[in-house]
């Protein structure tokens, strides 16, 4: 299960049935849950960034794809899934079943809830606080420096069920309310009210999210998306969502 | 020609004079045409995404640069050229002489014509249909979900000779007409007429493409670009283009 | 110090105490200064792009992180620092203590001064001329083709102390004056006056940079940033800056 070309520290703690791909490296300060698969050409538990003293903890049944780099000093719940070429720095505290798409760049010192999904090529700045069931689409940046460069960092807060469409940025210190949708190619400089849609640069109020219709010929509301989109979520969670709207 | 550190499945079908670089992996379901060069640290024919039953086919005289990942279940004509750190998922059907720049992220289930060029860091969403001689510049995203997240996917269509400038997105279901130019930093929400220029967010009509002048001191029209730009195209094709404008 | 799995050409010139990580490749035409650390899975001195006849020169005490690719034919002063998954093409001439963040894509044939910092995921087009103490934030592109695709390349010029915020593009041939700030999510089509702030798409004048206040409760000017931000610069330089504002 550990490819003979992989370099795995004897001090790393690997659960049962962990697979490590060819040309991958697993450092000492690493705890990997059972059933987890690490692809080829990865570097896991990169010790740099001085005495964190904290290990990298990857939950059970996770899947880290090839060419990814995880530093020591972060924790991920069970069922983490990543694309390729992902970089995750120290101080990332994530819940269960996080998905990080290809080319994701998680700068560390941030918190992420359960069942959150990052599509390809997102950049999560330090001090971001991201809730549960959040969706972030490609080329989105969560910033943190209000007057770059400076020593002041104001992280972004994304509440549960937020969706941020492609190529948008959230400016430092902004809070995006529960269930809000950020339209594509937007720059968000002010807090966003729960269950609303904002878009543009700077982003402005567009409508209540529930007024957007699904393009399925049935005029169902497209938001809250948990009303109709259930792929990959646990049965119990979906049941709860369905009850909410019945 | 196959570096001793490379891991090549005995079931992979390699043409004559194929080169495989150090620390690269070639899986079983892979057919690589003669004269093709694979750089270092690549993973070619990645089997994941379940029984595609279809192999990865790379045409002759291709060049895949280092740290690139290609899944099984895609087909590329002869003369494919890529940059580094490229990811290509299953279901990509591409013609001859496709170029994919560094950090390109091709999400699969898409079709791409002949002699099309992607510059660095483009993201091609599933269900995109891309013609011949198309140019896509850095940080362009072809999207597909009209109300993310949802189960509805409306791919983008780019007709022949389209050029999309840097950091633009094309929204789901949009068709960009033959020879159209999308200005930089645009968000395109409506179909674009052949041989026109649109720009802005949302993108609006700017002018007929032929009215843009080349900055060469001669006031030649900059578009259609095939009038003056011929680098890397076959002689026979260029001859045809020159005849069109003589 | 050279990992046994690394492949280092006997023709490469390595200074004292150079470290080369696992699965990395160092080609013949490479000169690496003493004390430099190369991470895992790198390719250094990539010979392609025909007889440059010029080597890759990396100054002393540099640190190139994993999965990075540097071509032959470029020169870097001492103290180069990179993130992961960086690509640097031939013809890049950089001063001392350049920082290139994760996923940086330096297209080569460009010049970069001393103590300049690129955050993650920047794209530096050919013929860019970048001064000293410049800051470029994530997803910024310096373009060069005024009517893509064409054979005409007009590089961007960034003077000393310029800062370009996240997800902005600078259009071909534009000069950004000393100490100017480009706001986030901007598209800059005209030259920018020294010590001013521009923003938007297309970018317009916002204010004199010195009128922006630091969010530190003290109403200090946020710009010029060298007044208050000193992290990572040599003591002598900071002393000079402090004298300038005392």
TrEMBL record, chains A, B, C:
<dbReference type="InterPro" id="IPR011004">
    <property type="entry name" value="Trimer_LpxA-like_sf"/>
</dbReference>
<dbReference type="InterPro" id="IPR001451">
    <property type="entry name" value="Hexapep"/>
</dbReference>
<protein>
    <recommendedName>
        <fullName>N-acetyltransferase</fullName>
    </recommendedName>
</protein>
<keyword id="KW-0220">Diaminopimelate biosynthesis</keyword>
<keyword id="KW-0457">Lysine biosynthesis</keyword>
<keyword id="KW-0808">Transferase</keyword>
<dbReference type="GO" id="GO:0009085">
    <property type="term" value="P:lysine biosynthetic process"/>
</dbReference>
<dbReference type="GO" id="GO:0016740">
    <property type="term" value="F:transferase activity"/>
</dbReference>
<dbReference type="GO" id="GO:0019877">
    <property type="term" value="P:diaminopimelate biosynthetic process"/>
</dbReference>
<keyword id="KW-0677">Repeat</keyword>
<dbReference type="InterPro" id="IPR050179">
    <property type="entry name" value="Trans_hexapeptide_repeat"/>
</dbReference>
<dbReference type="InterPro" id="IPR018357">
    <property type="entry name" value="Hexapep_transf_CS"/>
</dbReference>
<keyword id="KW-0028">Amino-acid biosynthesis</keyword>
<dbReference type="Pfam" id="PF00132">
    <property type="entry name" value="Hexapep"/>
</dbReference>
């Amino acid at each position: 299960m550990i490819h003979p070309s992989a370099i795995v520290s004897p001090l790393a703690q690997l659960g049962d049935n962990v697979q490590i791909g060819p040309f991958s490296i697993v450092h000492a300060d690493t705890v990997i849950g059972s059933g987890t698969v690490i692809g080829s050409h990865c570097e896991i538990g990169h010790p740099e960034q001085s005495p964190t003293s904290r290990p990298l903890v990857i939950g059970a049944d996770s899947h880290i794809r090839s060419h990814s780099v995880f530093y020591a000093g972060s924790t991920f719940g069970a069922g983490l899934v990543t694309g390729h070429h992902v970089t995750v720095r120290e101080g990332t505290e994530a819940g269960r079943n996080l998905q990080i798409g290809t080319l994701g760049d998680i700068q560390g010192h941030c918190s992420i809830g359960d069942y959150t999904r990052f599509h390809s090529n997102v950049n999560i700045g330090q001090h971001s606080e991201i809730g549960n069931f959040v969706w972030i689409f490609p080329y989105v940046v969560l910033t943190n420096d209000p007057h770059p460069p400076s020593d002041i960092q104001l992280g972004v807060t994304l509440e549960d069920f937020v969706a941020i469409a492609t190529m948008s940025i959230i400016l430092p210190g902004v809070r995006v309310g529960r269930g809000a949708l950020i339209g594509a190619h937007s720059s968000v400089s002010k807090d966003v009210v729960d269950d609303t849609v904002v878009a543009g640069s700077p982003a402005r109020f567009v409508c209540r999210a529930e007024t957007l219709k699904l393009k399925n010929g049935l005029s169902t509301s497209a938001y809250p998306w948990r009303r109709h989109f259930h792929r990959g979520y646990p049965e119990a969670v979906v049941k709860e969502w369905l009850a909410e709207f019945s």
